[in-house]
Design goal:
Pfam families: ABC2_membrane (PF01061)
Number of domains: 1
Largest sheet: 2 strands, antiparallel
Subcellular location: Membrane
Mean pLDDT: 86
Keywords: Antibiotic resistance, Membrane, Transmembrane, Transmembrane helix
Transmembrane segments: 21-42, 62-89, 110-139, 151-174, 181-201, 264-286
Protein name: ABC-2 type transporter transmembrane domain-containing protein
């Protein structure tokens, strides 16, 4: 355990040494949140106005902004963990694995060291983005837009997502052999993730086939977990107590998901993410063993 913790500390030190990179990681998420809220969100606002003409503008804006925040926080859990795993790529590129071969470290300790550092970075960054987003929402709308119990639940989900996606990142990056490849993969991941999570466009806009494919991946269900605690109160206010309106919003904006006739519930998603965490941690350790040969 001491060896693993020492390796986690070493990886965190290397990551946070690049202060400009850490700042830009936070800034990119904040910029994305502001861009969507100020510009791209108008598409969703116009759509809701057509469907719910009696709803007030403030309620519509509050709902869309909360929905966007949930998606951005989910994206941040993956992109920041992926970014923190860049230490692994650097170690491989600069030949530091030669030292690891002779060091008294097991492959599980190595993967847990990288993965643990990625988890801490992802959790911190995502929680900071969530706090900034909530502060902006409170300033623009009302302190009642998001409840304190909802924030606590969302923070718990952020920790789960950070752990699961750190495991996925640790496995994926064992196949990356150069800094250029890492940069290319990071760009592709950052571009696609918002669409795969249903964070940029509601899943209700997609065809049933595309929707089933996206919902079968872990990203859309992960975003679903955050939508209820972060945007559930705003949705209820917007629906105005009309169950049919709430059901329609849930289906269209991804508060409830399904693959064909199978409904993806909260408990199923949590268990699935725990399985993802265990599975990809194990696979990552096996891959680390091959890399060190």
């Amino acid at each position: 355990m001491r060896t693993t913790l020492a390796f986690v500390r070493r990886n965190l030190t290397i990551y946070f040494r690049d202060r400009a990179g850490v700042f830009l990681s936070l800034l990119s998420a904040v910029i994305l949140l502001l861009l969507y809220t100020l510009f791209l969100g108008s598409l969703q606002i116009d759509s809701i106005k057509e469907s719910l003409p009696a709803a007030s503008d403030d309620d519509i804006h509050a709902f869309v902004n909360c929905w966007v925040l949930a998606g951005i926080v989910m994206i941040t859990t993956f992109t920041t963990s992926f970014g923190a795993m860049g230490v692994f790529v650097d170690d491989r590129v600069f030949g530091r694995f030669k030292d690891f071969r002779v060091a008294p470290m097991r492959r599980f300790q190595l993967i847990l060291g990288y993965q643990g550092a990625a988890f801490i970075v992802s959790s911190l960054m995502s929680l900071v983005i969530m706090v900034i987003g909530v502060a902006l929402l409170m300033a623009v709308h009302s302190v009642d837009v998001i409840s304190w119990p909802g924030l606590a639940l969302a923070a718990g989900y952020v920790l789960l997502l950070s752990a699961a996606f750190s495991a996925v990142s640790s496995f994926v990056l064992t196949f990356v052999r150069s800094s250029n490849a890492y940069t290319a993969v990071s760009t592709i991941v950052g571009t696609l993730l918002g669409f795969l999570a249903g964070a940029y466009l509601p899943v209700g806009l997609l065809s049933s086939t595309v929707r089933d494919v996206i919902n079968a991946l872990p990203f859309s269900p992960a975003a679903m977990l955050l939508r209820e605690p972060l945007a559930g109160r705003a949705r209820d206010t917007l629906a105005g107590g009309v169950s049919q309106a709430a059901t329609s919003l849930d289906s269209y904006y991804g508060f409830t998901l399904s693959v064909s006739s199978f409904d993806i519930g909260t408990l199923f998603t949590v268990v699935a993410l725990i399985v993802v965490l265990i599975l990809f941690t194990t696979l990552g350790a096996l891959r680390i063993g091959r890399v060190l040969r």
